[in-house]
Amino acid sequence: MKKIIISLFLLLTTTICLAQLRGSGQGNQQVAQQGDEQDSSKNKKDSSLGFHHRDPSLEQITISFKYLDSIRNGHLDSTVNDFYKYFTVPETWQTLGNNGSAGYSLIYSPLMKAGWDAGFHAFDAYRYTLQDTKFYKTNKPFSQLDYQLASGAEQTLYALYTNNLKPNLNVGFEYKLISAPGFFVTQNTNHSSYRLFGNYQSLRKRYNVYFAMVGNSIKSSENGGIQNDSFLTNQYYSERFTIPVNLGGPVYYQPSPFNASVSTGNIYKDFTFFVRQTYDFGKKDSVDINDSTTEYLFYPKLRFQYSFTSSTYNYQFLDYAADSSTYQQWYNINLPGNVADSFTTTTKWRMISNDFSLVQFPDTKNQAQFFLLGARLENLTGSKSTVTNISTSSSVDYHFYNIVLHAEYRNKTKNKLWDIEANGELYATGTNSGDYTAYASLSRYLNKKFGNIRLTFNNVNRSQSFIYNPLFSFNEGTTSPYKKENITVLKATAENPFINLFAADYFITNLAYFSDYYHTAQDNNLINLLQLGASKKIKLSKRWNWYVDVVLQQTDAAAPIKVPLLFTRNRIAYEGNFFRNLNVSTGIEFRYYTPYKEYNYSPIVGQFMPQDTMTIKNRPDISAFLQFRIKTFSLFLRGENLNAISFTNGFGFTDNNFGAPHYPYPGFIFRFGIRWWFLN
User: So what's the pLDDT on residue 675?
Assistant: First the structure.
């Protein structure tokens, strides 16, 4: 309830404040598409001559951003032809059926991260991270408000504000809320994420600082799936909240968007504080703008860079309505069988990282070419505990450290035809000693017709995530650490106006995985997975367009990696600009993947696991949509899961698809959403 009130307060206050902005509706369409705008309200008038004096610095609005380690500028995207650019669940993700529930990508992508990792990734799609933080630069304040409302009282809210308080100082914040009560018992989710960020450059452009604070609160109730799939077509269970589930129960469940509590499920929280400071030595220069203004320029040759990161992670599963038979069958946990059975397990981590790097720029006139050498010290502390209504395990503490050496080379050539990137890191000593990553990429821009081609190589040798460590409480049967996992990826992409293509080949050895709800295993065989993909826009007529995405995947059937052979997403849309300011896209979208043995899900450890007993044969996911934009205002209407239509027991949307064995997707869902940009 408190988070909903805070969210509504933020929405109301920001809207009232931004309503005072002048000229936000003038020329904003051009800003959205090109990053600048003509603001006629800022023109000054010389009364003595009767002419308007145009000041370009007042009329132009420029908005760009960079990611932390990127050398490229990004710009705002105002297109309305793809709803998933605004939705919280990625288009390739398979979830347990509710917005905010655990999920994974149908297009296989392994964890390419060396060093320590906790191992909880089922909710990564909803989290803010330091790596995806955008550092903005704008000469005028920019704000964005998104709000979506869907069937079942589902709500999402997004707010962004950024402003250059001074030409060399930018600050901003982001906030996101997902509240989805769900359609089945004990399925509600309530996630909130926030991000404060900023960057500063000294007047002489030698000193720079980036800072960010990123936090996430993930609350997801878990019901363990429905007890019998036949209940979906039983008239007695036409109200989905009455279908029996394996965990939790109706006594403890209140389907309300104002109820953010979890009585059975996972609560994950994390927080990261980051500061990076750089100081440059090089060549000074300046340009006199006028008699009183001088623009200082600086071309670095050597950069000293220091980064400090402090992160905390808290992973908790709790069940205040624990069923003793289910816990005995799934997890071999003995509960007394009382009505008041409860179970809680908690894992906490804290990491402090200090990184010092030297960056050298060989060519003064090409700042996109540099060498970097650095070293990083990581200090880790952790603890775990398990509590039931009959016992409390003593807390176990962990203390680890890592010393990491890393290097990088980048070169975006002056003619912008070649783009080279190579980087690597080695865990020289510590708990993850011997881990390493090696990455190389070569890109060549051919011409407007043939576009860009890129070749990449990536090899990672990594310790298994800590959830597979024998020290972790839910890892029975493992007495010694697993061998290091090694992953090699070869990938080629081609992007041009006609078609986008990619091919990727994965080679994986010593893959660790959960073989059931609490046992882990390691596949010592070489696993090879091949991916081929294509994406194309086909113009059917002047207004009708067909967007096609196709991916083929193939691996050994005996491997613990389960993927559909074919995945495709298609949109057939009527699109165009009308009445000068109205941009419309409306049509049908469907997503389909071939039958395969979908992963099962273990709620307590939050892990997906392979299974070989059930093949899921889903219908295509079909949606109808209407999306339009008028200047800086966008609106979205969407009807989802039209594929669930059924006439078995009369008309209804009861032929549900499944996200995992015994985890059905809901029936028909109607979504309404708006996006509004404010510029001043």
Answer: 95
Q: Count other Cβ atoms within 10 Å, centred on residue 77.
A: 11
Which residues, other chains included, contact 164 with Cβ-Cβ below 8 Å and sequence gap of 6+? 137, 138, 139, 140, 170
The dihedral sign for the CA sequence 9, 14, 19, 24: negative
Q: What is the DSSP string of 56-125?
A: HHHH---EEEEETT--S-B------S-GGGTSSS-TTEEESSSTTS-EEESS-------S------TTGG
The DSSP bridge partners found for residue 493 are 454, 502
Rounded to whole angstroms, the Cα distance separating 653 from 644 reads 5
Give which of 504, 484, 479, 485 is closest to 494, Cα–Cα.
Answer: 504
The domain total for the chain is 1
- pLDDT at residue 7 is higher than 60: no
pTM: 0.88
What is the DSSP pairing of strand 658-660 with strand 396-412? unpaired
Question: Which residues, other chains included, contact 9 with Cβ-Cβ below 8 Å and sequence gap of 6+?
Answer: none
- Cβ atoms of residues 674 and 634 within 8 Å: yes
Q: 369-382 burial, b if ≥16 CB within 10 A, otherwise e? A: bbebebebebebeb
Give the domain extent around 619: 2-679
CA pair distance 490, 454, nearest whole angstrom: 11
**Amino acid type, 113:** K
